Amino acid sequence: MTLVALAAALLLPGCAGRGRRPAYTSDIEAVIPSGTVSLNRGDWVMGETRGVWKVEAQPATTNAAPERLGYVTARLYREVRGGPTFTMYEVSTLDRSEIIGTVDSLGNAQRFRPRRDGGIDTEKVGNNTLPLSVQAIFSTMRPVTLVATTERALAFEFLDLNRDGTLDEIEFPRLKDRMISPDLNKDGKVDFQEFDQVDDL
Questions:
Q1: Which of 47, 120, 35, 55 is nearest to 80 (CA)?
Q2: pTM
Q3: Domain check: are 138 and 48 in the same one?
Q4: Using the 8-state DSSP alphabet, how is residue 145 labeled?
Q5: At a CB cut-off of 8 Å and minimum separation 6, what does 197 contact?
């Protein structure tokens, strides 16, 4: 055996041992996520609603009222495995259960398109201000305005079938029970201020 071969035989095992990663027994490695993380129920916990807006498009004619296209709901999300929370804006049609897109807190917007096989295609529609991102998701050329509202105001609006700004006994049967009626001024109707004071809705 030559001198060079002898030196290599003595030094290589020590070098190989130094290069190996030690075997950790900590629990930290067990919770590190692997692969990509998506916004599904398995990876994220949804927190409370942070805001609701009505999406209104400019009318096609000058004297017409704005057309309501749908809603934007801000929800707080947190990764199940830990980490900071962030807000995601869900864009829906007039049927609030039909989510047609999302805008993240950085302004990245994506639109959802149903496929014939039942799946959903995701299409990126840019990065912009929230109103412009919502406009892109709705695929409209008309500028949109986001009108802040509340879940309680939307519930009142849903019950107000004749759109007169008050609820009568047909729209709000609780009026018939004088003991628990929210009709504070006793005019036989409930306006939004009275409705908003009812705690158990």
A1: 47
A2: 0.69
A3: yes
A4: E
A5: 182, 184
The residue type of 134 is: V
Q: Could you report the per-residue pLDDT of 67-108, keeping only the tens digit for each?
A: 999 999 999 887 766 677 889 999 999 999 999 999 998 899
Give the domain extent around 110: 44-149
CA–CA separation, 71 and 89 (whole Å):
10
Burial of 130-156, coded b for 16+ CB within 10 Å and e otherwise, reads: bebbbbbbbeeeeebebeeeeeeeeeb
Same domain, 189 and 130: no
> Distance between CA atoms of 147 and 72, rounded to whole angstroms?
9
Task: Check whether residue 106 and residue 125 sit in a common domain.
Answer: yes
**Model pLDDT for residues 133-183, shown as the tens digit of each residue:** 999 999 999 999 999 999 999 999 999 999 999 998 889 887 777 666 777
Tokens for 70, please give them.
Answer: 């749908």
Mean pLDDT calculated for residue range 26-52: 54
Total count of domains within the chain: 2
Gap between the Cα atoms of 5 and 3, Å rounded: 6
Cβ atoms within 10 A of the Cβ of 38, count?
A: 8
Q: Cα separations (Å) of 65 from 12, 62, 161, 170?
A: 82, 9, 19, 28
Asked if residue 159 and residue 118 are part of one domain, the reply reads: no
Length of the chain equals 201
